[in-house]
Specification:
The protein has a domain of 134 residues: Gcn5-related N-acetyltransferase (GNAT) (Aminopeptidase, 3-Layer(aba) Sandwich), CATH 3.40.630.30. It has 5 helices and 8 strands. Strands 1-2-3-4-5-6-8-7 form an 8-stranded mixed sheet, with helices on both faces. Strand 7 and strand 8 form a beta hairpin. The longest helix has 15 residues.
Length: 205
């Protein structure tokens, strides 16, 4: 685990201070079904790879930054975990099948050390059931515990459902860059940038 260059201040927790100890957390979907949120583990390689191969639509895969059909890409994520830089969250069934993957990225130095970036992906059959919303909310709580001031999300203009979900959670669209993103088929997409202001932890008491 990396040692932060800047000391933690009031309202901040490291992963060892108890953030990881919060899990697993139960989430009840709109169908009444239950999934459990927890951090990604080193032994999740096969489960996470299966999620990308069998639970994610081709359209969503087309919009990802990394080739998750490459087993070694997924293995690299699981074998090189550093929760203090990238906090990866998965949603799994009681049987251990992964249905969602979300990450909180941040730096512990430089001008952006109070800004985190989130990425969320859920399986196609869980769309509209509240799983993506629950995972974003959870990452916002983690960002608050870590002392973040802003949380950023980048969404392609074709991802209308994701844009609506972010806005319902209080994110504001602050920029839209035309035709910045290219999917692997060569299609161009506008990149929309959303920001969420994180309330200081002590403001919630």
């Amino acid at each position: 685990m990396s040692i932060p260059i800047f000391p933690f201040q009031k309202g901040e927790e490291t992963m060892d201070d108890g953030i990881v100890a919060r899990y697993p957390k139960e989430v009840v979907l709109k169908t009444g079904g239950k999934v459990y949120l927890r951090p990604l583990r080193e032994d999740d390689v096969e489960r996470l790879y299966d999620f990308f191969l069998n639970e994610v639509s081709e359209e969503d895969l087309m919009l990802l930054r990394d080739n998750v059909k490459d087993y070694y890409v997924v293995e690299g994520w699981c074998k090189n975990l550093d929760y203090d830089r990238v906090f990866p969250l998965v949603a799994e069934t009681e049987e251990g099948r992964i249905l969602g993957n979300a990450t909180l990225h941040h730096r512990d130095y430089g001008w952006s050390r109070r800004v985190a970036k989130i990425r969320v992906l859920t399986c196609l059959r869980c769309r509209g059931l509240g799983l993506g919303t629950a995972m974003v909310r959870e990452l916002l709580e983690v960002a608050q515990l870590m002392g973040m001031e802003k949380v950023m999300a980048e969404v392609l203009s074709s991802q209308k459902a994701a844009m609506d979900a972010l806005e319902k959670l209080g994110f504001q669209k602050v920029a839209c860059i035309p035709e910045l993103a290219h999917d692997y088929k060569g299609n161009k997409h506008d990149l929309c940038i959303y920001l969420h202001t994180v309330r200081p932890q002590w403001d919630t008491f």
